[in-house]
Structures are given as structure tokens and as C-alpha cells.
Amino acid sequence: MTASGDVTLLVVRLSDSFSDFWPVLARDLGVLLAECTPAETRPPSAGVGVVVVAAAGHEADVAALLPQLAVPGGVPVIAVGSAASHRLAAQVVAAGAADYFALPDDRDGLRDALTAAVQRRRAALGRAALAQLEAQAHAFRDIVGESPALKAVLERAARVVPHGDATILITGETGTGKELLARALHYGGPRAAAPFVELNCAALPAALLESELFGHERGAFTDAKTAKPGLFEVAHGGTMFLDEVDHLAPELQGKLLRALDQKSVRRLGATTTRTMDVRIVAATNTDLPAAVHASRFREDLFYRLNVITLELPPLRQRGDDVILLAEFFLKKFVAHAWPGNIRELRNAIERAVLLSAPGTVALAELTRRPSPPAGAGPLPFPAPLAEIQRAAARAMLDTAGGNRSEAARRLGISRSRLQRLLEGQGADDEEGEGDPN
Q1: pLDDT, tens digit, 9 for 90 and up, residues 331-374
Q2: Residue 242: in which H helix or E strand, if any?
Q3: Which of 18-22, 131-135, 333-337 tops mean pLDDT?
Q4: Which fold has domain 140-316?
Q5: Which of 150, 182, 213, 293 has the smallest number of Cβ neighbours within 10 A?
Q6: Number of DSSP helices (H) and strands (E) in the chain, helices first
Q7: Contact 172, 178 (CB under 8 A)
Q8: pLDDT, mean over the chain
Q9: Which option is the CATH number for 374-437: 1.10.10, 1.10.4160, 3.30.565, 1.10.150?
Q10: What is the rounded distance in angstroms from the CA atom of residue 341 to the CA atom of residue 325?
């Protein structure tokens, strides 16, 4: 088997005994080899599949060393010494090691244990890689459209998805799907398990926006009763989406630039900085170069954000995508069981058309139903029997979508009796309940 970069064998040397054995073992296992002393040890990288503590002559020090290695769960630690002692092996395992082997007698057992650990690690990496590929393949599934203009942007975006540190600027008119694309970039990429935090830079005044972004310490201003982490801290490890970034006040533009350059933030009222690991995706519906030229936006911040630009085309440039989008939203709307009747559906659509922006139909307006007056119920009560029966018949007819035969069947009466009830003539009707057909 040839060496592969997918898994690394990390040997932490308490002694140099058997030092010639580790390169041979790594080659036989088909893995890379990394060696260090306890003083050089850092948390193992993602590629480390198994850790060996080489402790021949220093077996008694293994138990104290293990907690210092900060090995992530799922990565076994195997101690190797020269003393064949069941008591020592039990102590080492109790301290957190997966196993203990004494060389040279246990050489075959060690090789078998490492082979199994490497195979498990490779399988785990394979599953993770497959999940990542699937995530990337489905990252843009919620962005509907087949037009060349949209596909060109999505193909460019797909090339960026695996690069979790690249800063991205999404441009396009209002309503072109900038937030949807930002989410796709996050959830399809290597930061998907970490937070996606969004902030509309036009939604808050500058003073509040600064506190939201950077956080504050207790007593930083009058209403700061407790310390509060900023959104940059909340987004640590993930993605910060700055929508309408062109609305940032000039003083905040400078602070944002400094945070991005230094990869750290300082809360309001604090004297120390906090390291941040955040991918920035910004969006704007304005011409930022023109804003720079007009001195409304810092040129250095523009170039810092404009590492990769993705420009979403407006719907008028996307041809038949308007049909695909209409069908998509229709299916999405119809997929939810309509709680009312046909008349209510007609009224809901009419209301949505009237209340939505010109040329659009807002789904939120379709799903919003007027609340009934306080105390209103499906049937009038108290009321004369004829009125109650008529209301019940009308309610069932509405439930049946206006189908009188179906309404009669559900009530267990004949169609003719249903008609009389609707006309208010059923209270004194002595006709028995018969076949509704």
C-alpha cells in the first residue's frame, strides 16, 4: 500500500526507543508519519487518525501525559513501552489510552491495533468527504432557475464553496436572492456545522449596530447592565452575512476593516481583543464603486470585501425562470393543507394580490388569514333551532367545497333535506335520516 495523505500516525516520543520502527510501521500502514516530543505537542490536526505514545523506559509518565495531549474524541491513543506489566497496562488504559503494548513481544498486536484504527479513520474521513460532496451538490437546491445568467453565477459560486475563508461580496437588485445565495455558500461549505449569523446593516442606527457587531462589557454605556458578546463572537467558526453593507456608517466601516485585517474584535468598554475565525459574506444592492468614488464608502474596505464578487441577475434577465419560480411557489403553497374553503381561498388570493408589491404575490399574504371576531364560532348559539341547523348545513357545505351531495353524505341526510336546511325549513322536518344519494 502506498502512503496516503488522508491519515497521519502521530508519535509522541517520551523516549527514542524503537525510533527506527515508526517509519517502517507508517509505510506498512500506508499513512503519513509525524513525530514530536511532549513539549512540542499541539492538538492533533484533522488528519491524525491515531496517536502513539512511545514511552519505553518512561512508562510511569504516560498516565500524567495523556490529559495534556488534547486528542479529539474518535482518535485513539495507544501507549507503547518495553515493560510487560498487566498492572501498568490497566493504569494507562484507566488514564484514557485505548491500549498498551510492550515491545518487542507485542509488535504484531500493535500492528493489528493500528491497522484497525487507520481503517476506522479512513472510513470516517470517507463518510465526511461524501457528506461534504453531497452538501455542495445540494447547496443551491433552493435557488430555482435554469437560465444561463443564473447558472453562470451559481457555477462561479460552486467553485468558491469549498474555500471556507474566502471573503465574498454578493451584488444584485433587491429581491434577487442574495441572502439565499449566502446561506448556500455557508451550508454547502466546510463551515456548515458552525453558525450562520446575518445582520442587516440598514436596520439599526450606528450606535446600536456597533454594539451588535462587536458586543459590549457591563457598564460600557448607560443601559449595559450585563456583558454581551457581539455577533462576530457568536459567528466564531462560521459565517457572518452583512446585508446592505453599504449602509454602514463611516466610523463603523473603519472598525470593520480593522477587525477583518486583524481577525480580532474588541467589545465596547473592553481593554482586550478576542480572536475571531469568521468568514465574511457581504451583500449590497447599490453600486459600491460609485459609492467609493462619492466618498460614501471606504475604498480600502471595498477592496477587502470585494475578494470574490457574485452578481445575481434580476428576474427580468432570467427568461423562463419566472415560470419555474411561479411553479415552485405554487407547489410550495399548495403543499400546505388549505384550512378553509374555496371562497376563502379565492379571497386570500385576491387579498394577497392587492397587498403585495406591484407585479408580485407575497406568500406571507397568502397564508395570512383574518382572525374571526372575538366570541365568534362556527355555529350561532344560543339561537333558534332552524338557524343553528341552517348554519351547520352551510358550514358542512363550505367544508365540502360547495359539493351538496358530499355535504349531505357527511351529514348523513338526503340531498333534498340538505337543501331544505339551507333554506331554513328543516327545524320541523320529520323526514328521517336516509341515504344521502
Answers
A1: 766 666 666 666 666 777 777 777 777 766 666 666 665 554 44
A2: strand 239-243
A3: 18-22
A4: Rossmann fold (3.40.50)
A5: 293
A6: 17, 14
A7: yes
A8: 82
A9: 1.10.10
A10: 26
